[in-house]
């Protein structure tokens, strides 16, 4: 069995993706196919004995689409400037249309040439021309609606298409009657209804398009982690080549500051490599001869030569790209409440309208009255309120979330967050700050305060290339402490550094440096005990020696984020299981977990294992939220039911996630769940009122109450439709 992801051209709606998916799954030799409309991809698992890639392309073509070959992630960036310009233009046209059609009703001055009473023909034709423009603008929606109807899967587009065209066609008929001289039809024009409905739906599509673009950018950023060029050794001479020219077995050279080009094994030299994008570990890893290196890692401070082992599709980063794409293609069926209602509502309404039309003709009513009743039923059942019920509540809730620093990228999240019963947290950068900080200073000096010791230490560390030095540099910047001039700086590999400040000799390093310089101190046993306490909390230790006397011990660690303990406590009280999932070592992970109240820890995992963990939890029936910040978390974020990233995370993690916590405050997860519960309740209320109005008015539209003198025409039907929409709007605004 083989698996591939194809790039597909020509899909414009969910009917397209569903149709292609069904067609592919019917073909002999294809084990399974999953089509993703957002990514415009098709993930296909097939039997290579029966099917090859050329046949897959042929299958796609026969289904009415085009295969662009295997998906690589190297796509051109989508540009929504044209859509934005169109939206602005039609926004202006919408205002003009509403002014002409309704301005006189609220006392606004109207040009005589467009006055509905004095010049009804001009009035009708003007509205007709403007409505035609909106029909053209929203034709993709109308086309999608009927396409879904023909595929026997009517959805919101189908409702909108039928409602819009029914309103437009009846208005066109009314316009024709006005032109023929019957001015009574001037009050039966509904061009503005069809136009404005299309306008707001196009706005939603525009915003949705931006989110799709962001999803594609995520894959591009993954690809861009590896450099485009590298230096290889050929017959002892260095030569610059493109990454595509590197072959297995080539000797690749890396200097300090370079990114590793391909996966390989060090054959000479040593360096500290930042692999946090993959492991999530904030401390750069020390690498020497024989150790493995990963494409995309950053060489901090050394010179190494390594043998290329995994290139192209086989590299670790390419596998991560594949995981993200596959996770994005995985189907987790989430049916919208409105779509469920629509699935039954639309066919029933159409059937009722047709039966009524036929019965009116059989009973001897005129064709005109039968047609009017047919249109009245469709207009009164127009999906405006049903179409607004879900998105209005979502938009208001998303606005509320945004103000609170919660960026929700997909509307489904506000429907699903309340269902979450398991939350998986990455450690480094999510539960912790993700970078080394000064966590503790034990000051043994008689005349120097903490800041002065850290100023001296930071000045000397600034000359070092060791990763730990950044913690001291950050401290000096945060506390606005200037650096001293350092003389006679020396780097003692594996031990520490020395330097002279203000004519005093300072030694900085681990305990071994004390032995190296034979530092004697009566409190040495005490220092050892303090070192053990700090080390148990995951600290790296720096001794500070002034003129052969220990004046401080400094702990450097990755600190737990503010409020994390309270967040975990609240989640546990809500019976939501919390799990720590990290690439860090088990000992350090358990220390952090115990401190913040998480009982379940899964440590020492690589990205593939993180993704597998999420999948296993979902198989067990869990509704899983994943919180992370690194590139290594991207596949897991995409696989989870809801992916959440902190704003300080990498771009790719944020692009792969569904929710971004803009203020890096994990307590916002609790707010998100609360907003979700209120949103779901509001959506159900909206759907009730929308459906209530429609079902109440349909019998009246049919003429059931005509014997007692109660009937409606399309104009009154339009008013009922407006009232139902108004009810939904006001109810949704309560969420604010």
Spell out the key features of this protein.
736 residues; alpha+beta; Alpha-Beta Plaits; Calcium-transporting ATPase, cytoplasmic transduction domain A; Calcium-transporting ATPase, cytoplasmic domain N; eight-stranded antiparallel sheet; seven-stranded mixed sheet; 19% strand; elongated
Uncertain stretches of 5 or more adjacent residues: 327-335
Largest sheet: 8 strands, antiparallel
End-to-end span in angstroms? 52 Å
User: How many helical elements?
Assistant: 25
- The average pLDDT score comes to 80
Computed over alpha carbons, the radius of gyration is 33 Å
CATH fold annotation of the domain at 437-557: Calcium-transporting ATPase, cytoplasmic domain N
